[in-house]
């Protein structure tokens, strides 16, 4: 089961995803301190929790760790959407409602994604009644 990230977890993961490199607790702390007052131990605990939950991996560097994301934000978002959709008792209705909430830009992104998936699919679907 994929659970949404908490506010501080999301703030940490946003930095890890944006920087796209191994990071230390100190680096994340210093960046977070530009927005809020926060303790080193709080950031260390959050990053350890994210490691325990499988969102981060870490390697020892001296007496500290360097953390990096296990997957990207797109994969996280997709997992949340899939989880929400799988809980529906009427998946088709859930999709219709979801598509109805989309902006024009989001619908265009959806069309692009469908084209990409179709291009990656089997070349011959003539004998497949599901297509």
Automatic annotation (TrEMBL):
<keyword id="KW-0805">Transcription regulation</keyword>
<dbReference type="InterPro" id="IPR036388">
    <property type="entry name" value="WH-like_DNA-bd_sf"/>
</dbReference>
<dbReference type="InterPro" id="IPR036390">
    <property type="entry name" value="WH_DNA-bd_sf"/>
</dbReference>
<keyword id="KW-0238">DNA-binding</keyword>
<dbReference type="Pfam" id="PF03965">
    <property type="entry name" value="Penicillinase_R"/>
</dbReference>
<comment type="similarity">
    <text>Belongs to the BlaI transcriptional regulatory family.</text>
</comment>
<protein>
    <submittedName>
        <fullName>BlaI/MecI/CopY family transcriptional regulator</fullName>
    </submittedName>
</protein>
<dbReference type="InterPro" id="IPR005650">
    <property type="entry name" value="BlaI_family"/>
</dbReference>
<keyword id="KW-0804">Transcription</keyword>
